[in-house]
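User: I've been trying to design a sequence by hand for this structure and keep getting stuck. Would you show me what you'd pick, starting by listing the structure so we're on the same page?

Assistant: Good idea, let's start from the same input. This is the structure you sent:
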């Protein structure tokens, strides 16, 4: 058991965040909304966490470290977003939260400064990306830095990629792949046709029921 009684776990990924040679874990505790007597749902902050592996009496154990608190953190992954050799955390948040909320509906990345048990500075990829569901990272345009592919779930439901124009802390340009695609959720990046360029695939559930992939033609 790593941790018991966590409310709506979402992302779980294996990664060595502290570079000590063993496997740690990235986790998300989204926290389910609570319905009040007036019918309005109350959204409490969830947690983005990592679990540090250590040895206790010759047994593998894990110690939890909180990276950040957020409303509806959902799906993301470890990725070296700034090219400094350690693993940062990319995360999408917002799905099912009220559209008018200003403290969610974002794609963010949290910077590993080399001291992952302390603070993780926050960098914004996209703000106001309504119903943000999942974000994954890869150098999609071959310019040597990390770009991001992401989905939003229902309002309106779409798949996009964000072009990194600098260090990952500056300007990001959004390019739409599929708009008005209801209930878009998982997105992955891989070379599907063997041309050595990263392509994008995504799936949409209720209201769409489709799996699509987009060929990277290597053009601007």
């Amino acid at each position: 058991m790593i941790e018991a009684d966590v409310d709506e776990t979402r992302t779980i990924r294996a990664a060595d965040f502290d570079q000590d040679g063993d496997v740690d874990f990235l986790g998300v505790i989204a926290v389910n909304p609570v319905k009040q007597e007036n019918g309005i749902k109350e959204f409490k902050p969830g947690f983005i966490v990592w679990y540090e592996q250590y040895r206790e009496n010759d047994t593998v154990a894990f110690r939890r470290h909180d990276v950040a608190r957020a409303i509806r953190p959902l799906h993301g992954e470890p990725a070296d977003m700034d090219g400094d050799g350690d693993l940062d955390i990319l995360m999408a948040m917002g799905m099912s939260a009220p559209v008018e909320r200003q403290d969610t509906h974002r794609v963010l990345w949290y910077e590993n400064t080399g001291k992952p048990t302390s603070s993780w500075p926050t960098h914004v990829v996209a703000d106001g990306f309504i119903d943000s569901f999942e974000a994954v990272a890869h150098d999609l345009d071959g310019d040597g830095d990390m770009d991001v592919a992401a989905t939003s779930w229902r309002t309106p439901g779409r798949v996009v990629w964000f072009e990194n124009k600098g260090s990952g802390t500056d300007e990001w340009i959004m390019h739409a792949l599929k708009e008005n695609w209801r209930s878009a959720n998982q997105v992955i990046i891989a070379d599907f046709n063997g041309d050595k360029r990263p392509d994008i695939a995504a799936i949409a559930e209720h209201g769409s029921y489709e799996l699509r992939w987009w060929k990277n033609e290597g053009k601007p």
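That's my pick for every position. To get oriented when you compare it with your attempt: The chain has a mean pLDDT of 95. The radius of gyration is 18 Å.
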